[in-house]
Write a structure and sequence with these properties.
single chain; mainly alpha
Amino acid sequence: MAEEKVQQRQQTVPPKQPGLFITLFWLMPWKVVGILLASLLVSLLIEYAGMTFIWAGEGAEHSRQVMLTESGYLSEGFTRSLILSQPVVVISAWIQQAYQWIFVDTGFISWVNNARSVHSQGGTVETLSRAGSWLARALWEYLQATVYVTIIFAIRVAILVLSVPLFIMVSVIGIVDGLVRRDLRRYGAGYESSFVYHHAKRYVKPAMYGPCMLYLAWPTAVWPNLLLLPSAMMLGFVLTVVTGAFKKYL
């Protein structure tokens, strides 16, 4: 009986939650890295599927055009920032350095060029079969698309980083507005609904992560404000509802 009581007590004790320091400086960075890697993987899979079924005639040219358009959005729309004094120059240097590390230093570009040389010899060398020439061409197209999509992903991540002040400002406004409505309800003896609070609280993280993942994995060129502004407004609305529906007495 004593052992059963001890087991019941152990089962009823809630698991210990990690501290704020561990959450902010260890768990949160790994979550962000996981979200970024998942978004990159999804964007690559979408591009491969599009090259196979939707824009098969364009090949890697589709992702190259998207890359040029996204770089234009970055250079035209982010000439000033609260985070960096010269965001376009600094981010371009970072992307160039990342390109050097990921593709040049690892030998990936050499591999792509070898596949391209095999493709260029496919129509002239008689020893290569038609199937081998088609395989070399397909491989080269997908490798080129991988490079372009990765650069697009880096550009969009930079745009999200530069948009952090927007999300902070909207979050602060939403929290302040929610606190004001909470105080009005508290002093006016308004109706308190824990149902609204708990259900709205569940949508805080999806409102933060969902639009960012959608933006990073979007297969075509998209103007950043077309997704970022509605995402910021949705986050502010969710925070307003959560803060305003918080319990009446702290």
